[in-house]
Amino acid sequence: MNAKRKSMLNSAIVGRAVKDSFIKLNPIAMMKNPVMFVVEVGTAIVLLMTLFPGYFNAKDDIGFNLTVFFILLFTVLFANFAEALAEGRGKAQADSLKRTKKEITANKMTGSTIKVVPSTELRKGDIVIVSHGEMIPGDGEVIEGLASVDESAITGESAPVIKEAGGDFGSVTGGTRVVSDRIVVRITSDPGESFIDRMIALVEGAKRQKTPNELALSTLLVSLTLIFLIVVVTLGPIAGYLDIDLQVPVLIALLVCLIPTTIGGLLSAIGIAGMDRVTQFNVLAMSGKAVEAAGDINTMILDKTGTITFGNRMASEFIPVGGESVQSVGEWAAIGSLQDETPEGRSVLELMKKLKLNANESLAAGGEFIEFKAETRMSGIDLKDGRKVRKGAVDAVKRWVVAQGGAVPKDLDSHGDSIAREGGTPLAVAVDNRIYGLIYLKDTVKPGMRERFDELRRMGIKTIMCTGDNPLTAATIAREAGVDEFIAESKPEDKIAVIRREQAEGKLVAMTGDGTNDAPALAQADVGLAMNSGTIAAKEAANMVDLDSDPSKIIEVVSIGKQLLMTRGALTTFSIANDIAKYFAIIPAMFILAIPEMSVLNVMSLGSPMSAILSALIFNAIIIPLLIPLAMKGVAYKPMKATKLLRRNILVYGIGGVIVPFIGIKLIDLVVHLLV
Amino acid sequence: MGILQILIVIAIVVLLVKPLGTYVYHVYSNDPNKTDKWFGWLERFIYRLIGLKNRPGMTWKRYAVSFLLTNIVLVALGYLILRLQKYLPFNPNGIENMEQTLSFNTIISFMTNTNLQHYSGETGLTYFSQMAVIMMMMFTSAATGFSVAIAFIRGITGKGATIGNFFEDFVKSHTRIFIPAAVVVTLVLVALQVPQTLDPVLTVKTLEGASQNIAIGPVASLESIKHLGTNGGGFFGANSAHPFENPTPLTNVIEILSMWLLPASLPYVYGRFAKNTKQGWVVFGAMMTLFVGFLSLIYFSELRGNPAMNVLGIDASQGSMEGKEVRFGIPQSSLFSAVTTAATTGTVNNMHDTLTPLGGLGTLAEMMLNVVFGGKGVGLVNMLMYAILGVFLCGLMVGRTPEFLGRKIEPREMKLIAIAILAHPFIILAPTAIAFLTDLGQGSITNPGSHGISQVLYEYTSSAANNGSGFEGLADNTPFWNLTTGLVMLLGRYISMIAMLAVAGSLVRKQWVPETIGTFRTDNGLFYGILIGTVLIIGALTFLPAIVLGPIAEHLKLG
Questions:
Q1: Which of A53-57, A394-398, B307-311 shows the lowest per-residue confidence on average (mean pLDDT)?
Q2: Given an 8 Å threshold on Cβ–Cβ distance, is B556 in contact with A215?
Q3: Cβ of residue A231 closer than 8 Å to a chain B Cβ
Q4: What is the CATH number of domain A313-442?
Q5: pTM (predicted TM-score)
Q6: CA atoms within 13 A on the CB side of B73
Q7: What is A286-308+446-547's CATH superfamily?
């Protein structure tokens, strides 16, 4: 699937785009793009004048009129082709998604009876059983069992993922396949609203709405079009005072050259291609607005674990305090971790093995496992004999011990602090009112993160790291990774508070998350990137979903957003700057017969009035397909200061936009002049 | 010598921008300052008189309604006076009531700060009308424009929901700016021999023994506000070319400075409001660059003279002196023409009809752009509109949605700006085309060929830009011209004012976006270039075809 997505221009897509370019000539559809609609109307008028010259009192210049007609027609077709091509990739992808969605049957459970029904009959709240080899019939939550699920239809990732009841790994997506075991799923979406339906609609661009920036730009393009319409319509009567008779096709040629057809023809392609670049990156953006917002981000909130660090904090040392031994720390840590399936818990047992220490495992038998909670920040076990074993954040364990009348060993804090200073996480191990020692958990910053945060800083983006760690640990990692700010010992509601604080200063905030308790913050953030592995609540609250579940991708998403905006700006500037040369081609050509002195203005020394007008028109038409690759790929973007970036882009697209058409029109004229 | 004269005047302007701008900023910042001591008592008295004890901030809509209603009341009053002037006092010369389309044109012309004159002051207006209508409107229209510009600046630089109180701004514009300045300039002009009297026309015996009527009147006072308020309507038909309006090169410089200084200081005022004077200097720099460009075009073109005349062996060493006053020469005439069309004053000290084609093009182009300093406030507002447009076009190229002064430019602002940028070419080109299509319009054109096109184009451009100078020669006192130019003046003034106030009202309520290293800056040299580029490409290219047929064709045909 991934490979398929990347082969962007196969012949099938191009073929379909060619066909679509003609279908899109339908004036009703065309009206959505006012700039090109004006060109189409002009084309129709020239066609009528060519077919019925007598009726329009046109000069017998059928050859010229016919040529103008074809160039205009191709201008419209090229613009349609750009849009169709940009849509093509999405459509191809949607088709393959639709194939996976084909008729699925479901084992619906009503009370104790099981009935086989088509998936389209499932409604929110229905319970279905999915066994080995079957497709999951709709989005839902696992309420019973554990299974490995192949989600490659959506993510392109072929390795199956584990889904189990409860926790943050309980959500399943319709259209994915269970490859082992059996799960009971509660359906959470009605037909047509499932994740895969939304995904199809998104990649297909069916519900594509113009973003605010596109709307504002369209307004400007329409008003420029109207201005030039006024210019061209009034030119006839004014020239008439000098007894210059301007032919309608010539005026239409002038109009089409002046109105911003280049950007008008490519605008929607740029938007679609920008969304598509995000999709190819395996991130599903719910709207173009979200991608644009990504370009505007001022602040990025990143979870430390999994984003900045690898997150598998491994126990690397047992440190006894208050005169205890390594053996006793290890033993209690191990007993507290026997049923703990977190990587930290497992790493404690591994460390025991490595140190060749033994724990009396029978003590734990029949005990009640206490899960880690963000509020308590401890986990452990309540033993059958009444003793309670806890391991967790040092201050939390201290409070817990003190609450039971215990004392805190004097060397606990100094050992804890020294671990934290080294970037590690100390976990205190306690039984009832006695603290035995510390587990030293080590975490590592992913390679290259520092460079990326420097890059973000150059783009003007502030990074805030959120972590449940204590302030010292957090500070060490923050320094190592080079983030601008950090929030230690953060609870889910802290994130939302930070987002609100930043937003109150007018900043746009991006964050990633996967848990249900991240959902409010994801919804509050301007760009919320949820992990596909996360809960349904998180995915629904976010405006982007990363199918690969890699939180550090948010950084690239920002670049793609910026690139999209830059491409739009660059081509707009280019398009408008082109007008200067077109004026110099057409204006002298229009008037030179009546006012021979106008030849001074023919700075490009174009062959003849007719070839000048045709050359300008041809340039205007072919610049559209020539710029399609740029519109689709986006302009090159390297993070740098805005002023530097602007200077470079103004030079290339602004000054370039003034110069290129002079050269282009001259070259075309050298050829055209030979023919007319 | 010629260039030196010009440079000295420009240097005076540049030097005075900061002190004058600082003063104007204090007038409108509404923070207590020492000038309150001098003017506060008078203003408090006026506020009490008009029941304006509390002066709450207004939303843009309230502000717009306030200034429109004020203008409507003044228009009604002025129209009545013109139509009944025969029966009113101060009519020693027995002048008749004004015809209705001419009254319509005249009253619109003065209320919109245009001062297009289809009448001749000596014979068309009584002294009472000159003072109660013409001069009153010269003050109030300038104060209206200034107030709106300040409100716009407050909107784009401030926070909250309101953009100031119109009536307070309006009163302060009079008490702290126009009245004191007018008094000073009047006294200076009187000292320099400009008449100021209510006596009737002088009848004198000439050397040959014939009797001649010499028109006089309260000239100096009108002259001062005519320029200070960038109005331009002369006391006499010949305007500032008339020796009683503008007797010497020194009065000429004073008149140039009085019309130029306030518009030139506004960018600095804007910079003060934006708390970043560099913002203001960038705008000032762009305006000055365009100005110097157009001034050079006029100056060198006039200096070169008319090649067709030069061929005939007429002495061309003085340049093209046709239609110019000997006491001003080419430099003082060119500078005056460049300033009057830049600041859209419309006063003239030479006949623009007889400028060389390229010289005429310079004056025409400044009015078409309407951003080179511009009339009372309007020029700055238009320039800032182009700044927003420039930000919108180029701002995307830094990879962010466009922001201007920390506010996002979104569809609503673009729609309003679209209205403003569409209106200007529309109200110039559409009536021009209509004039050529109809006999009513064509009948008044007194020149064949390209110069005829320039005449018509100039008339509507001058109306649309609320400049008011005429390419004299057009027989324009006909119902067709009175009504069309009247409408163009109205639309030219109020459409963009209302649209831009709405932009300010929309921006003032927006959440500020903090500036970072990734922000598009509008206070550096690069933006200065972008601003000029935007003005030239969006503003100027629109008019290129018409200009090519008018002045450029005429120039090319001269050889």
A1: A53-57
A2: no
A3: yes
A4: 3.40.1110.10
A5: 0.85
A6: 7
A7: HAD superfamily/HAD-like (3.40.50.1000)
